[in-house]
């Protein structure tokens, strides 16, 4: 996006800053998120994600910088921004005694829908997020995952162009997470701009098209992200014949120091996707039984860890998430462990 002035949709943020007294919550954030995509906002706890989202939603004033939401400035066009934005906060403040249906109807009325329109929209969203059976139950009976679905439905009531989801998957079980990912992808497929924050990287790896890395209130530059993505990473290889596999790797020319044993698998440092493909070809040619050949950590996690290791971040980030090359071999990929980057900040 060379000319952000003419970029009318999505989210455009440039040089945004916000302090609370002496605490610099957001120091220098710049990025763009395009319509029809899901952009991950990744950073440890206390890195400024919620503060940034509040500014995007026009609920908090930046001290400096420029924000455009669907072409509107939250400072001067607050009502246009509120109409364009759907905001899913990290904690759902729901009206415990209201039913799921009344919650959505009341929200619709707050957006000035007439009674019939609000009722029709509530019914539509209840079906979309799969809460039909609970529609007339008070929201206090909902599980965490069901509350998150209601919260997403509430953010969608006025059919916003831009969706801001603050840690939507936190506390969800794996099934509820898959369900949430399906919903978020569906919303993006309708052309909406989705920004979703998390400190659990695997969660975002599953649903995002692009990523913004934020640490201590600063987004990492495109160059740094590209460098981190290119850096060597570990690949996980599983075989029922581990000793044979190790011999095969050594004879292919992999240095002993680059091989680590991890339970029933070997981890091997690999410099690039091309090198991984070549390694796979040669191991398979050796005739060994291989059941897993996959990156040891997800793309976002790898990039994040590498960024954390390198120097402090500076400006803009756009990181398209690449998918692993598929292979026609009978090889399964292993689910990467979900790591949390908790612990920084507060
Ligand atoms: N209203 C506030 N008053 C004072 N400090 C705040 C306030 N909101 C956030 N902060 C501080 O700003 C930093 C960023 O917080 P936050 O945006 O909530 O991070 P994240 O959502 O990434 O966990 C933290 O150090 C936090 O303690
Ligand atoms: Mg937060």
Strand-helix topology:
Elements (H helix, E strand, L loop, with lengths): L10 E10 L2 E11 L4 E5 L6 H8 L7 E6 L8 H7 E4 L11 H11 L4 H14 L15 H13 L5 E5 L7 H16 L3 E6 L2 H5 L4 E6 L2 E2 L2 H9 L2 E7 L2 H11 L6 E4 L2 E6 L2 H13 L4 E6 L3 H11 L37
Parallel strand pairs: 3-7, 3-8, 5-6, 6-7
Antiparallel strand pairs: 1-2, 1-4, 8-9, 10-12, 10-13, 11-12
The protein binds adenosine-5'-diphosphate and magnesium ion.
Q: Oligomer, anyone?
A: single chain
How confident overall, as mean pLDDT? 82
Provide the CATH topology of the largest domain: Rossmann fold
Main β-sheet, in a few words?
A: 6 strands, mixed
Structure ligands: adenosine-5'-diphosphate, magnesium ion
If you compute it from the alpha carbons, what radius of gyration comes out, rounded to the nearest whole angstrom?
23 Å
**Structural class, judged by helices and strands?**
alpha/beta
- Tell me the strand order in the biggest sheet: 5-6-7-3-8-9
DSSP summary, beta strand count: 13
**Distance between the ends:** 35 Å
Helix content: 25-40%
Strand fraction: 15-25%
Count the domains.
2
Order of helices and strands: EEEHEHEHHHEHEHEEHEHEEHEH
The CATH class of the largest domain:
Alpha Beta
Which stretches are low in confidence, meaning pLDDT under 50 for 5 or more residues running?
1-6, 311-346
Query: Please, how many helices?
Result: 11
